[in-house]
Amino acid sequence: MKVVKAAYDFNNRCPLGSAAGYGVPLKIDRNLTSYLLGFKEPVHNVLYASNARGKCEVVILSSMSQIMLSLSRLAEDLILYSMPEFGYFSLPKEFCTGSSIMPQKKNPDVLELVRAKASRVLGCAFSAATIVKGLPGGYNRDLQEIKEPYLEGMSITRACLQVMTLLVGSITANKAALLAGFTPDVFATDRVLELVAEGMPFREAYNHVKVNLSELAQSSPAKAVAKRMHLGGVGNVGIGVLKRMLNAEKKFVTGEQGKYYKTVTELLGVNYPQMV
Q1: What is the mean pLDDT of residues 15-21?
Q2: pTM of the predicted protein model
Q3: Do 146 and 249 sit in the same domain of this protein?
Q4: Which residues of 199-229 are buried (b: 16+ CB within 10 A; e: fewer)?
Q5: Are residues 191 and 247 in the same domain?
Q6: Which CATH number characterizes residue 119's domain?
């Protein structure tokens, strides 16, 4: 979210008044214009306002790429850990499809498509960046070619966020399979650190655990999790903190959206977005 907000802040500046890139010989109030149009502030340097054309789209697409990288890795994990070999999670059937020939199949098509679409958005960001990189200062017609990848990247990212929100909200965890995944070797490092804390040199503790993994057969996953109570550890994820952060971001988005609607309503003289 911080990356997206940084991109939003980068773009939340009004270029109006920069004209072709040198300003105009008129008594204009760029601060007032920026305020009336709902921007945070004007782009201070008019030369930069012109040369930032295209860069704004690249910055936004880059932030969309970061979102898609996270969604792609989440999709890959869900594909992997929902396979029969693991069975840690069950995917909702409405987000899967059958095979063209094998009736028992439940293919994670949505996740596979999200994984692929991450590459599409990365491609959009790269395409826009390569168009900008070789341009001289000022406006160049090449910049019109950025609009297509920009709109495509934004549309793909939004659609993937929407579908992944629905999918994740319908996933079922298989507790038995998850617990069975805690084989003795999972606890090996914990045991080494316990022995070190008791005074054994690390090398000795390491070698002892290495040849005595059977001692860990009765280790408890719950106890292992409970010991990780440091900030952000699996025993102290801090759901309440995360919820407060999420609510703060939602409040920010709602506030900015409200300002945008108000500005457009005043400019057009209609109740936007209900009527246009």
Answers
A1: 91
A2: 0.90
A3: no
A4: eeeeeebbeebeeeeeebeebeeeeeeeeee
A5: no
A6: 1.20.200.10
